[in-house]
Design goal:
- This is MarR family transcriptional regulator.
- Keywords: Coiled coil, DNA-binding, Plasmid, Transcription, Transcription regulation.
- It comes from Sinorhizobium americanum.
- By secondary structure, the protein is mainly α.
- The chain has 2 domains: 2-107, Orthogonal Bundle (Arc Repressor Mutant, subunit A), CATH 1.10.10; 109-139.
- The protein has helices spanning 2-18, 26-35, 42-49, 53-65, 87-107, 111-137, and strands at residues 40-41, 69-73, 81-85.
- A 3-stranded antiparallel β-sheet has the order 1-3-2.
- A hairpin with a 7-residue loop joins strand 2 and strand 3.
- Helix 2 packs across helix 4.
Length: 139
Amino acid sequence: MERASRRFSGLLRTELTKLGVDDIGPAQAMVLLAIGEAELSVGELLDRGHYVGSNVSYYLKQLADGDYIDRMASQRDKRSARIRLSEKGRKLCAELREAAKSYERALTRGEQDRRNLETAFQTLHQLELVWGNAHRYGF
């Protein structure tokens, strides 16, 4: 899994370079993709992406400085901020999703390949849930 993660990070770096993006790296791009179309608090983002708090603060500062996200003070609690993608962030995510589709097409030459890929994603999602619950609540 670690090797696959490193390869994926390298692939993201390559895609960012192709798109002319040099002010953020793969980790920040993954944060953008985790935000998606939602408007989230930092805590919700931490839960969604399983990040370490100090890393997310650093990533969000870089993303805000690069105009990839908008930060708004919460109406209920001015100490808390809500984040969402800016137009620039939405555009980059759309381009990255399009690149992902091209890789998916390369992997799935037929219906059986598509089913195999779907099964692999389902299995990875199940592992994530089991490991996440084990981490939070123990076995």
